[in-house]
Amino acid sequence: MIIKWLKLLYIKRCDAYNNSSFGTDLNAGALFKTPPHLPHGPNGIIVSPYAKIGANSYIYQQVTIGDDGKHYTHVPEIGDNVIIGAGAKLIGKIKIGNNVKIGANAVVVEDIPNNATVVCSKARVIIRE
Predict the structure, then answer these.
(1) For the whole model, what pTM was predicted?
(2) Are strands 83-84 and 52-53 parallel, antiparallel or unpaired?
(3) Is the pLDDT of residue 82 over 80?
(4) Could you give the CA distance from residue 9 to residue 45 in angstroms, rounded to a whole number?
(5) Which CATH number fits domain 24-118: 2.60.40.10, 2.160.10.10, 1.10.760.10, 3.40.190.10?
(6) CA proximity to 39, closest of 81, 80, 84, 77
(7) Among 11, 40, 46, 129, which residue has the least CB neighbours within 10 Å?
(8) Taking Cα atoms as reference points, which of 80, 85, 128 lies closest to residue 108?
(9) DSSP element (H, E) containing 15
(10) pLDDT average, residue stretch 87-96
(11) What integer pLDDT is reported at residue 120 of this predicted model?
(12) Phi then psi for 79, rounded to 5 degrees?
């Protein structure tokens, strides 16, 4: 019993170390059809525990897949064969189609159809003095 407890404690400490050293939060509960490809490791990847991610996905470093801030279950649903570039942010209750490519640092807050490529985040002035 004590050996089992010590092994569990070791696993928890390793997990805490990796999360703090990589700045990663791949929350338990996130549904991946197949394990994602992480070409640059888990560095800075944040995934909501309610996210659904399809098969054959590529997730690069510093990606955030999260809720809209109003309700924790309003998270992206990502299709198969999706490539998410470094620093991209997918926020809110959106659907990303199959075979989609999301460019580096893109901010996605709307649905994306199948076979599309998404780049840039268009800045808008919301307050002008």
Answers:
(1) 0.78
(2) unpaired
(3) yes
(4) 24
(5) 2.160.10.10
(6) 84
(7) 129
(8) 85
(9) helix 2-22
(10) 93
(11) 80
(12) -75, -170
